[in-house]
């Protein structure tokens, strides 16, 4: 059997330790995501969802507990190796798209590939393929400001998937959209994720969307429990 794409084991995280405003956000939070599995994380605001996603995305370290990505324990790795894992194995989507305003949709999708060493031709070809998948080929040369909110978010999904990651981490990817757009964007995301066979951890407040994923976890008192 292959390793889980993500294994978080008994993560503990306290902010401001020893100070009056000390707050323990994660209390032995654990989860495992198999290859191709799409997991929803439902959590009230302030319960530690972003903290957990930051740790899973190797942007922050836990106080204790372990993080394994495709079987590799990340604590103790050099910054360089950690950056390589983030670039090659993880894809990120946020509530706001964070596309670069001065570049076109296709160029935004090409950039992470160029950073990973792809040629411009190969990167733009892959961008075109991804844009076609989310029905945005006619918008390839548009800058983000010339796209609707739902279109911008679909471009952000393409960018997240550009380097063929095995795990997608998404923090309320449809949180900023109206219900109809949210539905369309969610469908686009699921179709991309299913097509590539990647695993995904998707934080959402939308219980209806969560119910359509393979598994739902709830954040409760700093732990993840089956929802
Ligand atoms: N860098 C930090 N320093 C101190 N406290 C922090 C820090 N980051 C987060 N917190 C606190 O930790 C708790 C959890 O924050 P986190 O952002 O993980 O929650 P969340 O579930 O993602 O919330 P939201 O849905 O509102 O974004 C909050 O009480 C927050 O104020």
From TrEMBL:
A GO MF label: ATP binding
Keyword field contains Lipoprotein: yes
Keywords: ATP-binding, Cell inner membrane, Cell membrane, Lipoprotein, Membrane, Nucleotide-binding, Transport
Annotated Gene Ontology cellular component terms: membrane protein complex; plasma membrane
SUPFAM superfamilies: P-loop containing nucleoside triphosphate hydrolases (SSF52540)
Stored Pfam families: ABC_tran
Cited CDD domains: ABC_MJ0796_LolCDE_FtsE
Domain ABC transporter, chain residue ranges per copy: 6-227
Biological process according to GO: lipoprotein localization to outer membrane; protein localization to outer membrane
Family: Belongs to the ABC transporter superfamily. Macrolide exporter (TC 3.A.1.122) family.
Stored PANTHER family: IMPORT ATP-BINDING PROTEIN (PTHR24220), LIPOPROTEIN-RELEASING SYSTEM ATP-BINDING PROTEIN LOLD (PTHR24220:SF689)
Protein name: ABC transporter ATP-binding protein
């Amino acid at each position: 059997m292959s390793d889980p794409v993500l294994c978080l084991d008994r993560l503990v995280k306290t902010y401001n330790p020893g100070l009056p405003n000390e707050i323990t956000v994660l209390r032995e939070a654990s989860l495992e995501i198999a290859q191709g599995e799409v997991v929803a994380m439902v959590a009230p605001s302030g319960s530690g969802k972003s903290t957990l996603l930051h740790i899973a995305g190797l942007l922050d370290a836990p106080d204790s507990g372990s993080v394994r990505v495709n079987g590799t324990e990340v604590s103790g790795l050099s910054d360089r190796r950690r950056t390589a894992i983030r670039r090659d194995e993880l894809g990120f989507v946020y509530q706001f798209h964070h596309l670069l305003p001065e570049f076109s949709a296709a160029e935004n999708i090409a950039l992470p590939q160029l950073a990973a060493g792809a040629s411009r031709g190969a990167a733009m070809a892959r961008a075109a393929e991804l844009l076609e998948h989310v029905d945005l080929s006619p918008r390839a040369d548009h800058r983000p400001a010339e796209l609707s909110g739902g279109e911008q978010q679909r471009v952000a999904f393409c960018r997240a998937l550009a380097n063929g990651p095995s795990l997608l981490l998404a923090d309320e990817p449809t949180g900023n959209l109206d219900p109809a757009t949210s539905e369309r964007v969610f469908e686009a995301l699921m179709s991309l994720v299913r097509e590539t066979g990647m695993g995904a951890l998707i934080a959402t407040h939308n219980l209806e969307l969560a119910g359509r994923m393979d598994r739902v976890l709830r954040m409760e008192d700093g732990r993840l429990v089956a929802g």
